[in-house]
Amino acid sequence: MNKKLIYLYMALGLVATDCMADRNSITPGETWNDTSGSAINAHGGCVQYWDGYYYWFGEDRTKTVCNGVSCYRSADLYNWTRLGLALTPSGTMTDDGKDIAKGRTLERPKVIYNERTGKWVMWVHWENGDDYSEAKVCVAEADQVEGPYELVDVFRPNGCDSRDQTLFLDTDGTAYHIYSTSMNTNTNISPLKEDYLSPEEEINTQMVSQKYEAAAVFKTGETYYGLFSGCTSWDPNKGRFTYAYDMMGDWTYGRDFKDSDGSNGSNFCVDSGKDYSYQSQSAYVLPVEGRERCYIYMGDRWNSSNVGGSKYVWLPLSVRSGYPSVRWYDEWDMSVFDSMYRYKRVAQVVDGEEAYLLERKSNRLVSRPKTTLTLQDDGESNLCFVLHETERPYTYKIEEKGTGTFMTSVYGSIRFQTEAESEAQMWTLWLEEDGYYRIENLSDGKCLSVSGNETIAGTSVYLNDQSSSIHQSFALYFDSEAHLDEEEADLYSASYREENLRRMEEQEALLTGIAGVRQDVTDQLWVRVTKGVTEVEVYASEAGEARIDLVEAGTGRVAWRRRAAWSGEETKVFPLPQTHPKGVYVLRVRMADRQATKKIVMK
Known about the structure:
Elements: H1 3-11, E1 43-50, E2 53-62, E3 65-74, E4 81-87, E5 105-114, E6 119-127, E7 136-142, E8 150-155, E9 165-169, E10 175-181, E11 186-191, E12 204-206, E13 212-220, E14 223-230, E15 240-244, E16 281-287, E17 295-301, E18 311-318, E19 325-326, E20 343-345, E21 353-359, E22 364-367, E23 374-376, E24 385-389, E25 395-400, E26 406-410, E27 413-417, E28 427-431, E29 437-441, E30 446-450, E31 461-465, E32 474-479, H2 494-513, E33 525-530, E34 535-540, E35 544-552, E36 558-566, E37 570-575, E38 583-591, E39 594-602
């Protein structure tokens, strides 16, 4: 462009002063300037996407003084133009505190759109300006996303003290207010009335006595996730996450999710600096428009003496593991989301399955960059394994695809050796509720684990006693670029966990309750196969109902089932279907307080 034209356009206000230096990346923790060259002033806020633009709302501060709620707009999430104040202090202070006069404190603004009313609604944590004793909310609404927002009311929701707070708009149009209460001891969740201007009377109190604040709630599939921080004033601390399948139901920290210090919940940060949430506090989780299951963690790096000068920590957030995890990047752009979900959870294990092992807490893959196994980010060193069924149910030989060698426990350490008929090369996959496995060696009972319960890339993977409190769990993931038609597990649904619980019960009964397939008959109940594996013969000595299952030995999947009742000492015969794939199966009969099993081979 001709320089004279540039100067002319700048004089007319048609070109931003930093027009030649557009951003194309995000640098967490550094000063983030808007398109006019001024530092963005939008703390503790949120972002909404509307009509092709993102709108960033936050606390506008001069040092510690509150100026109102600011609004910025961006088309790419890198470059933000200041639109001004969306909510401006106005009026005078009143005795009942139902005002937003200059001098009041307005924190953690959250904005949602109400399709029923066509209004934009903002909720803000409101304080009197002198201290934090009021613990109220300020509610305002506007006709346009950027405002101006007009005050509706200031109050304590359902009479409860409300400090750090957020809003969540569900896919069915129901909105929720989530806030720290009881002097930051508990967390309350309440649905909002249809106009989103006040809460319903129903209150769901969760995270009791956990002293969480800075809630950031988002949803993937049927799963609601909540990020929180501890209560350490302006100082950063170790973040936590919880999840639920019903906003008004029980929120849980997850199976085995105790942190190394014994506290409930697990840290959503996984890299160096995670013990202080990368020197930040959670503010919001932003869904990236047009990208499935891609989110941005929005955090604040607070400066208590100059809140207006506080920095922002924005980082990619993944739920690939089934849980939220946030990695650190010195600098990043939206291309990080391009391959975030290349590796997907295996829906059903089959003989010959090609899979990668993903560790639960780190969201990292088992790899071998040099000679030993470690956890690593996605890359060339990640190991692809091939699972081979054995005659023992749920038990596999694990071949490293690249070398053709097999994972072996040698004196309690992991080695890869040529294939052998040895229990040291056999690994039982003990299913867990969330679809992960405890991977146990059949020979010595050692389990695949991670050194020091760590999540950082480069952490060693080794074998540990199954009784140890720090054994790790691993899930099977396939490469969706190499296996285009493979089914992905529905790990974000409640039914996925329900099915896993059922399968866990069956596995426990099959492998421990009856010592695998070694106990074929009892005097009171037995099962056998006749006529060339075409019929099942079951004997019961007493009256009762029995269930007969044909179970795939490798996966534990029930391939065929029948129920029948015995009137007393009696033998029953059932035709066995011949439509199942060839392989090793277990016939199992359950009857009240007894069981019988029989291993068979379908040829």
